[in-house]
Amino acid sequence: MLSLTLLASARAEGLPPGEVDFGKFEPPRSGQFVEVNLTESLISIAAHFIGTNEPAVAQLLNGLKSVRVTVIGLDDENRPELQKRVEKTRKELETKGWERVVTARKQDQDVSIYLKTRNKDTVQGLAVMAVDADNQAVFVNIVGDIKPEQLALLGDKLHIDPLKNIGHAAEKQEDK
Amino acid sequence: MNASVSDVTINLPPVIPVPGRAFTGVPPLSGRVPEASPGLASGSPSRRPQQVVAQEQPRPRVHAAGVVLVVIMVLLGLCAWGVVRFFYLGSEATALREVAMRAAPGVWNKRFALHVGPITTAAIRAGSRLFHLPPEPRAALSAFHQGEVGVYQLEQGTGSPDRAAVLRAADKTMTSRGWVRVVGVIQPEQLVAIYLPRKSLSAKRIRSCVLVWNERDLVVVSAGGDLEPLLALAGAGNGKAHWWPPAG
Q: B184 exposed, middle or buried (CB, 10 Å; 0-12, 13-18, 19+)?
């Protein structure tokens, strides 16, 4: 057990900037499970496809290195473990210099968004953790070179509403 | 002029071997030819050509017939293999199918299995050049290089399998073969997994494997191709073509 913990810790230390080690997710016995893991080469192909039609999206995609989205249905078996994992990941991110930009808690819903920035003008990583205790948990990690003004577009394309709001706020700051 | 054979002196270029003596590569100087074999020396000039004809003529006949026979058999074998191959899946799709079937032991009925290889798709592409086709289907034909699909159904009476266990087993099998899962979806009674090669993935050469399990129906798909014709078409559309993302 100790060696496994050390191994996981060593792996987390060696991650590229912007990448978050949420750990391995096991599909629940009942309920839904969705996992999307897009690598740089696949994102690059997608960027080529939409290049001429939506150049802004293509530019955003060309800056991305990986996109990982996991949605897990919660049941009595996995709920405590996943809630603990969210808390643990939050602490880790805060100690590693990630900036918590959104916190939303309402009834059983808990959403937090973290950004890893470089020189204040580039976002190297984005992490979203959302737990709806009655329903599902969502983990999102996007790695790449993202301009703050591209966050709204990213939130729009990935349907992350809080990120859209952050992006619009960033755009307004840029305009000023 | 009436000299016997043994007295004849000849001068041959060094590359021509003297009859009756092994060619050593040493240029023969002028001199006497060693005693020839009695048959040649005693003079029956017509005997040697007859011997040559008798020894060499049957050999080409036997060889030609054999070669033709082998070629025909190989062609027939290739044709038979090609026809049989149409109805059998390749290794990756078979591995995915086996993983799923092991997870739900029972009676599986094959509904449909079809394999279209690169030779067939190349023939279709070549044949399509004879016809006028709009650019979109032509690009699709150019992009599709090989594919296979198998549809199977689990007979009633078998319990519902643990789809999470199927996904784990499929991940293990495909990872060992150099594939990585990019999409995995589990819903009640449904499982979808999409795999891509871990390395050498490009628009020019893309391959994918898909496993879909819906209630009692299992579908495995493997496809490979070149996305560049589609990319070129999307680029040539200059905002007019909406291949991706889908309109709406």
A: buried
ipTM: 0.82
Counting beta carbons within 10 angstroms of the beta carbon of residue B211, is it exposed (0 to 12), middle (13 to 18) or buried (19 or more)? buried
* Each residue's pLDDT tens digit, B151-175: 999 887 667 778 888 999 999 999 9
Residues in B closer than 8 angstroms to A40, CB to CB, are none
Our CA-based measurement puts residue B70 at a distance from the nearest CA of chain A, in whole angstroms, of 47
Crossing angle (nearest 10°) for helices B135-143 and B228-237? 150
Helix (H, G, I), strand (E, B) or coil at B132: coil
A→B contacts (Cβ < 8 Å), by residue, are 26-39, 41-42, 45-46, 48-53
Classified as helix, coil or strand, A46 is helix
**Cα(A71)–Cα(A93) distance, integer angstroms:** 20
pTM above 0.80, yes or no: no
- What is the 3-state secondary structure of A8-34? HHHHHHCCCCCCCCCCCCCCCCCCCEE
Farthest CA pair distance, chain A = 53
